[in-house]
Description:
The complex is a heterodimer. By secondary structure, chain A is of the alpha+beta class. Chain A has helices spanning 43-51, 93-97, 99-103, 108-121, 137-149, 167-184, 195-201, 219-224, 229-234, 344-354, and strands at residues 5-14, 17-27, 32-36, 58-63, 66-67, 78-81, 155-159, 187-192, 204-209, 212-217, 239-244, 247-248, 261-265, 270-273, 282-291, 296-302, 309-313, 327-332, 339-340.
Amino acid sequence: MSTNVRIEALTVHLSGTRILHEVSLEVPAGSFVTLLGPSGSGKTTTLNVLAGFAPASAGQVLLDDQPIEGLPAHRRDIGFVFQSYALFPHLTVEQNVEFALLARKVPRARRRELVAGALELVRLPGLGARPVGSLSGGQQQRIALARALVFGPSLLLLDEPLAALDKQLRETMQIELKRIQRETGTTTIAVTHDQGEALSMSDLVAIMNHGRIEQVGTPEEVYRRPATRFVAEFLGDANLLAVRSGRVELFGLPVQGAADGTTVIRPEDLVLTDRGSPGAAVQATVTSVLYQGSRLRLSASAAGHERPLLVSAVPGELPETPSPGDRIGLRHRGGVPRTLREAVTAVADELAGADPQSEPDDAVPQPSFGAP
Amino acid sequence: MTDEAPAPLRRTAITVSVLGALIAIFLLAPMLVILPVGLSANTFLRFPPSALSTRWFEEIFSDPAWRAGVIQSVKVAAVATVLAVVAGTSAALALRRLRRGRRVVRTALIAPMVIPQLVLALGLYLGVRDLGGTAGIATLMLGQAVLATPLVYLTVTAGLSAVDPALSRAAHGLGHRWPSVLIRVELPLVSRTIAGASVLAFGLCFDESVLAYYLSPPGQETLPTRIWLAASQQASPVIAAVSTLVIGLAIALMGLSVALTGTRRNR
């Protein structure tokens, strides 16, 4: 019963400003896809267009290959969880959850069953008679989920679902969201600006910037093999190093991709060695040390490189904890880094500017920019 | 935390309080004169009264002419309030959905507050006559509804601004068409504000005198018109007594309205 979603060249103009620029995305049936990006990147707009809360200027959205363009929000059969939850404050928990069923003229007895089932699903049974104002933030979040799922929607949309919760609750709810999504098998699109959340919850992550999708891929793909500089920097800490004539500066590693440009090396890909040991590729001086319990974060300056190199190490694996001023050796853990494309925007603009007709139609749904 | 504010701030606070109290006395003084005069035992308006009695209040309740005036005022104000509440609430809800031109419509809605009532009265009188009718109680009800509509619109708009717009979208997204969203979500959330606005509108219409004076036909005068007529013919303390009752009602309605709109049950 899962529905696949296809977004094709979706463009949105709002009062003269372009919010979305030809966004295309394929969401496989039953998968959990996250739109990740900074505020203003167009991710919430995409969600609003899907839900029917905002009009698209061009492009289309297909649910199971059916365009939904002409359908008003109340006929789309999409569950939406708002950032503020938007629970109806004048109704009880039960009345909130059964709200969608009232519009569908579900008989009373069946409504009871479905509401009970939905409350069971979010692990809050027996709360039906409570006014929603008396619930905690985490409970409200679960009720909002139950309300959005009770009618068996074809698609579930989550707008910053965890932003309003405190850190500990957020981690619990990540696991819960994932469980509920898997149990119902509902195709889900979430929006977040929190990279950790996106990486841990999703089957696929789409990173958005300035109204475009920069890269789509599995959490591991987008983290390990970012396509652009923006993606590399947005997803965690990154050492950006120049590539010249097919080799990474300082380390001299061969790269995959263009012979000149920039590549990213994650802090955990750098290994500390003794200075002067044969494996050391780079000699550096420690400038700062941050002990974080399970990890140790170092900054080190290397001759010929302006920005400090970021290194993340496991404290137990080091013979001794380095301190600022120590001279260390660094080497790359292995694997072939890839040259980043400068920005997807520049490339897309070039294409659009050159000749819009020359883009083949079948190139529109691009599941992943990151596939090698 | 220090208990005492810095000296200059304290001086400012004292000045503001004293000025505020003086202004309040200035505004309320006429009312303070009216009450004792209404309780006077004298036959003529006179301040301070030489002796006190409740005879004038008793006269109001025993004189059928005054009673008729009260009943007429209640009738007119009630109908006008219903019309104004429907119009003002509809406008407030509709303008929330309007994307463009909101300011123009808003200005048009508030216009009755600044148009001289005399002009409105004359316009209604002539307009009804040109349409082949005679200006009467129905015209008065309509006119007062026009006066009260901005008040209702502004109050309900203020109430709606405290309601998360996502609630309406949530209701749509869950499958409800707009009439259903209106009845199930939007109106219940502003029901207390609407009640408060109705009370205010009723108060406004009940006291309204300019339209009432020009538009009520002889023999169907509302209370304010009757007071005016009585005052122009005689200087009896009964006028002060009636005024006291009207002021008392206005204060009671104001309090009720504040109680209704002030305590937020929802959010």
